[in-house]
Amino acid sequence: MNIKISGRLILGFMAMAVILAIAVGTTIWNVAEINRTSRRILSLRTPTAEASTAVVKDIYGTLATLRGYMLTGSAMYKKHRSEMWADIDATLVQMDTLSKSWDDPKDIENFKEFKRILKEFRHSQQRIEDIVGTPEEQPATQILETQAAPGVAIMMENISKMIDLELQGDVGVGGDRVQILGMMADIRGSLAMGVANIRSYLLTGEKKYAENFKTLWKKNTKRFADLSAQVTHLSAQQQDAFKIFSAEREKFVPLPAEMFAIRGSEKWNLANYMLLTETSPRALKMMDILLGKRDMQGVRHGGMQRNQQRLLSIDVARNNASVATLLNTEWAILAVGLLIAGLVSFLIIRSIVRPVNAMTVAMADLAQGNLSVDIPALNKSDEIGKMAQAVLVFKDNAIRSKEMEAEAEAQKHKTEEEKRRLMLALADDFEASIGGVVNSVSSASTEMQSSASTLSSTAEQTSRQATRVAAASEEASSNVQTVASASEELSSSISEISRQVAQSTQIAGTAVAEVDGANEKVQGLAVAAQKIGEVVALITDIADQTNLLALNATIEAARAGEAGKGFAVVASEVKNLAKATAKATEEISTQIGDIQNATQGAVEVIGSIGATINRMNEIASAISAAVEEQGAATQEIARNVERAAAGAGEVSANIAGVNHAADETGQSAEQMLSAANELSQQSESLRGEVNKFLANIRKS
């Protein structure tokens, strides 16, 4: 084969490049398809399905929180419902954007219908929330609070006024007053109990309360008719009140039946009625749009969400098919590529590797010195032939180099003989000139070592003597310092005692002033206790008068007979209260007497304490004067001791200087001795090195 190695390699690489291009192109096309489907799944199908699911969850959530608010009235449910509607608004904005990419016109139309129903659904929920907890929520209760209750209040006010006038004696002429009073009381009682049963029925819906009202209202109607027949026996004020009562009663008569009818209907709770008839049906419609309508078995079919999930499944299946196709194609391309790579490798090994291996063996033989080896491939015209020509040149050069090495070896032997002769002559000259100098240095270092030892011994003895003197001086200085410190502490203690005594004198004076103030306050307490006693006496007189009045009232009530029984009970309670007041007042008087006695005793004790504190003040003043004299004497002692301590310290400092100088002398001597020893060692080492140098020179 006459093609060069570079040509063969290029052809092999081109074959591999073609296989690689086919593989990459197929991969790019399939990956692009997978990428388009994946983007559609990630940016359209999945967000649409997730948004639909979120809307469904939030719709159910708003219904749940609305019911929670209707049941409890808690603002927490309002807040949660508001947050869910905010989530729904955000989700709708996302779905509006996504709907622009939908490819099913039916889904787009259903989404528009969904938004319309969702708006009505939200408005319905807001209406329910607005009326929850208000009278409008329960129309029957609203009638009770706005129409019936105000009229009942007016009726109760006027019937009570008629009863009060009857009890006060402001009555008309003739008639059985007891019977008339009983009619009024029955009318008021049956009216009050009837209204209570109306409230109970509106609250619970139990029929028994409605039946109770009807029974009570029959009684009220009968007694009202009886009282109407006795109008001529009423006073003018009672007749005016009866007219107002009758007018309000006439307005009230039709209201209970109307309230009972509303309470028994589906609209008795308007919020619940709206939830069942408006809000919930709209939620079901939206579920039908999103999730599909239910069949006979209750299973939903169709719907925006299910349709998007179906499209999502189609895209996922398409994506999986593309991935499978890509994998199969890659496996086929891999098999073809391996086959072509094997063929190219075989051709390269046969036409390139074998000649190169033969050339390698020849070059290895040349490297080991076998100059008779034959160089292969000298007849080739490719790169291996050129390599063989170059190796042949290396062989020729190696043969010429071997001949030149033999000539160089003979010249080297002659040169070494001449060098040995010159080195022996040089060693003799060096020994003659350097040997005397080394001997002189060794002798001088020995004499210097002896002198340094003597000087070091003398310095050490001087240092020991100075150390003994310094120790004695330090001990004397320490003793003087101890005495000085003790004197200073004694002086400080006396000063502190003087200060404490002065402070004690000041505190005693303050205590005397405070005792005088306390005496004045206790005297004021005694005066206040005396005034409280006077007030208690006044309360006692009032209680006695109240007791007399209660007794008189009891007598008058007894005279009135049956009509005065209630008043007699009140009079009896007032009498008992007056007795209790008198008893409590007596106990207060006893306690005040004890307070007055205790106060007088406190005045006497405080006076005694004041006298004692004055005596303590005088004693403290005497102690303070004595302590000041001791302080002055102690300060004089301290000053003298300090001067003695200063002298001892100066002596100690001078001795320390002597000791330091002796130490420095010793150190210098030791350094000198060390230098002498080192010099001696170095001179001996120099002698050995010179001998070794001369021996090496003579051997070379």
UniProtKB/TrEMBL annotation:
An annotated GO BP: signal transduction
Domain HAMP: 350-403
TM helices/strands, residue ranges: 9-32, 331-349
InterPro entries: HAMP_dom (IPR003660), HlyB_4HB_MCP (IPR024478), MCPsignal_dom (IPR004089)
One CC-aspect GO term: membrane
Domain Methyl-accepting transducer residues, every copy: 437-680
Name recorded for this polypeptide: Methyl-accepting chemotaxis protein
Protein species of origin: Varunaivibrio sulfuroxidans
